[in-house]
Design goal:
By secondary structure, this protein is mainly α. It has helices spanning about 5-25, 40-55, 55-60, 75-80, 85-95, 105-120. The protein is about 50% helix and about 0% strand.
Length: about 150
């Protein structure tokens, strides 16, 4: 084989190897995961933190950890119970049942608390406010480890 033909062959082999490597990397999950949809704003979650502190923390504790009688609203237990459900399911439950034995909150307060709970469990805020009708699977929003 002469030089120019060998060089062309080598360049083609390198290109083919790069394509195969890229395909293997993607197939193995080496590509960065797509960003989860943002269904609430940071401002909404911040408002939810304030309402939570006033209306929810006395039972569910300030860090959302719950206790042996009150369910945790953050962490593995929350994700196991709510991960396959939607944001609408969570909002509807809160609006129908919480705070237990006390007066209901406003729709905006329930939306804010829902946003705060999602944020604490790893969801990231965006430009769109959470609406009562927003129905996104909760586990699809969780990118980061739980922080309190």
């Amino acid at each position: 084989m002469n030089g120019p033909i060998l060089r062309t062959f080598a360049q083609g082999a390198v290109a083919a190897a790069l394509i195969a490597w890229s395909a293997a990397l993607v197939a193995a999950g080496g590509q960065a995961p797509a960003a989860a949809a943002a269904v609430f704003t940071v401002k909404q979650a911040a408002a939810g933190k304030v309402v939570y502190a006033k209306r929810c923390a006395s039972c569910h504790l300030p860090d959302l950890s719950g206790n042996s009688e009150i369910p945790a609203l953050a962490g593995t237990a929350f994700k196991e119970i709510w991960g396959t459900r939607t944001t609408k399911d969570l909002f509807d439950y809160l609006a129908a049942a919480m705070p237990y034995g006390a007066a209901s909150l406003t729709v905006d307060e329930y939306r804010a608390i829902t946003a705060y709970m999602l944020q604490v469990n790893g969801a990231v805020g965006g430009e769109q406010e959470l609406a009562a009708s927003t129905a996104v699977t909760i586990s699809s929003l969780m990118l980061a480890p739980t922080t309190k």
